[in-house]
Amino acid sequence: MKKTTVVFDLDGTLLDTLQDLANAVNYALEKQGMPKRTLEEVRQFVGNGVRLLMIRAVPDGERNPLFEETFALFKEYYGKHCNDNTKPYAGVVELIETLKEKGYAVAIVSNKIDFAVKELNDLYFKGIVPVAIGEKEGIRRKPAPDTVFEALKELGKTKEEAVYVGDSDVDLETAKNSGMPCISVLWGFRDKEFLAEHGAERYAKTAEDVLRFVEEM
Questions:
Q1: pTM for the structure as a whole
Q2: Of 59, 126, 177, 200, which is the most exposed, with the fewest CB atoms less than 10 Å away?
Q3: Residue 109 belongs to domain spanning
Q4: Which residue spans adopt a coiled-coil conformation according to this UniProt entry (predicted)?
Q5: Is there a single domain that holds both residue 100 and residue 134?
């Protein structure tokens, strides 16, 4: 079946959010007298939602008696500073605009907190991405297919019509669990070797590569 729909991951795929995430992590850690994390460490920690990000960042994770308080500090800070340094990757706004012009339906599905996903979507993709879903209560986060299926339902599309675009192993698993092919971008938080080890088959070096893959499907 010809593809009519493209579901995008957000962090590491459409937006470079790493610095703002790292700043929020280190704000919370520093407030609690914990050692700060490097940008590269945070890069490796992201992808499975913000709670797991902080479990990885906080010494001893959830076993640390200060974990919940530290996690709350992270969420409070990130809610106010999620767009200090964040920016779209080269060509992605134009990619989405081109997809829309060609008649494709587009959605964003992320493990980022839902309010932040919607806020960033409104800032960068307002008017061109009608559906943006993040982590929230009552729905399993990626790699479970739930948020993808919710997005498709809102778009009035089926998984057979859709392709998934992401930058990580979580995205590859999400696409597989959703019954969709995956395009793996190489400008995000994971490198080609890592993605290949996790089953990637299609690699996009540029936004133009994504468009080419979608049109060939």
A1: 0.90
A2: 126
A3: 5-16+86-216
A4: none
A5: yes
